[in-house]
Design brief:
binds NADP nicotinamide-adenine-dinucleotide phosphate, 6-stranded mixed sheet, alpha/beta, 6-stranded parallel sheet
């Protein structure tokens, strides 16, 4: 019998759900045991229901699996959720109430004060917030979220600067790939040869999530980071990879060499714990004058590294640079997978030893 932890995927047929299936195919700790999507797909085999968009084939076992209704009955206790926020808001609490660990991609619960919003390299300690959740107290279930796909690349690049020099203000403009809008997403006639300077609620999400992620856990609350920030978000005709032009003002003066060293030397909890999906280098500085570019750099670190380049002085703030990250890997399925690996090592996944013990009881096991 397999020793792996059985996991389910909510929204398994979508763009992010497909990435989960791809990334879980040979995962050392988890195996896909249950798939769910809307009523349109439920009852069909996954091969029939999903319009597979990835370059690797659908794993044979998954292709033949039946897609279930999105209800907790019969679901395993570890759920990766890739639902549209409107459905997630209703469904994720049902799974948590049924005792599941819900590792979510959706924005529905991210900003709730008792829900951890986590990038394991940046704020692994925020996982402790799950102990405030009523589901955890009642059934052992909980919800942990990962950020919006454009916030995650930005925050990976900012974290080493914030840690070493402090950040006073941020100005960011994004150029976001079409896969970020799901499938079928943006109509081809709207995006081909075009730029759309609007992505609903994206600028607000980037600004509030960046502050929560780089904020500090004080007692049982996250105190948001106190920098000022503005984001401009654009959709561009790129398949995968969100590119961002960033200007920053630092609290403490830093040279370009010190900043590049901070990017390249950044390592954190996932690297120390050698989590299976952790990239060796969460942030990679590319010295070429015309990089990073989505076509060439999006898969760096198996899609889990953020690429930074073009660091130079900024005439308005202190410095400006470019960041690129893979929106459906580091920005979605890979982010959730890394969160689940962190939870597993912390003994917090249902079925794993000691999973009902509180985080505080095991404080000291992990940073
Ligand atoms: N794409 C990205 O780069 C990205 C990055 C970060 C976060 N996210 C977030 O991840 C979530 C999923 O995004 P996506 O791009 O994968 O979207 P998507 O391609 O539109 O997929 C949506 C999935 O949800 C299912 N679904 C729709 N209505 C449902 C219902 N009433 N009950 C149960 N399942 C239902 C769909 O099933 P059917 O096939 O049966 O309709 C499909 O599996 C969203 O919250 C999104 O904001 C996406």
């Amino acid at each position: 019998m397999s020793q792996k932890i059985p996991v389910g995927i909510l929204g398994a047929t979508g763009v992010v759900g497909q990435r989960f299936i791809q990334m879980l195919e040979n995962h050392p700790w988890f195996e896909v045991a249950w798939l769910a999507a809307s009523d349109r797909s439920a009852g069909q085999s996954y091969g029939e229901a999903a319009r597979w968009r990835l370059k690797t084939p659908v794993p044979e076992m998954v292709r033949r699996m039946k897609v279930s209704n999105a209800t907790p009955e019969g679901a395993p206790q570890v759920i990766f959720a890739a639902l549209d926020a409107s459905f997630a808001r209703e469904l994720e609490p049902q799974f948590a109430a049924a005792g599941c660990a819900v590792v979510s991609n959706s924005s529905a619960l991210r900003m709730q004060t008792d829900v951890p919003l986590v990038i394991p390299e940046v704020n692994a300690g925020h996982v402790a917030l799950i102990e405030r959740q009523h589901w955890r107290k009642q059934s052992g279930g909980f919800v942990v979220t990962n950020p919006n796909c454009s916030a995650i690349g930005l925050v990976l690049a900012l974290a080493p600067l914030h840690r070493s020099f402090g950040i006073e203000s941020i100005f960011v403009t994004t150029m976001q790939a079409v896969s970020g809008a799901g499938y079928p997403g943006v109509a081809s006639l709207d995006i081909l040869g075009n730029v759309i300077p609007y992505i609903a609620k994206e600028e607000e999400k980037m600004e509030e999530e960046t502050r929560k992620l780089l904020g500090s856990l004080v007692g049982d609350r996250v105190r948001p980071a106190d920098f000022s920030m503005t984001a401009h978000c654009n959709r561009v005709p790129v398949e995968d990879g969100h590119t961002e032009s960033v200007s920053v003002k630092l609290k403490r003066k830093a040279s370009a060499e010190e900043m590049i060293a901070a990017f390249n030397e950044f390592r954190s909890t996932p690297q120390e714990l050698q989590l299976p999906s952790a990239p060796e280098h969460p942030v990679v500085y590319d010295p070429a004058p015309d990089r990073p570019q989505p076509r060439f750099d999006v898969d760096r670190g198996n899609g889990m590294s953020a690429s930074v380049g073009r660091l130079r002085p900024c005439g308005v703030l202190d410095y400006k640079f470019t960041v690129l990250s893979h929106n459906t890997i580091r920005g979605a399925a890979g982010a959730a997978l890394l969160n689940a690996e962190l939870l597993k090592v912390q003994g917090l996944l249902p079925g794993a030893p000691d999973s009902r013990h509180s985080y505080a009881e095991r404080a000291g096991v992990l940073p």
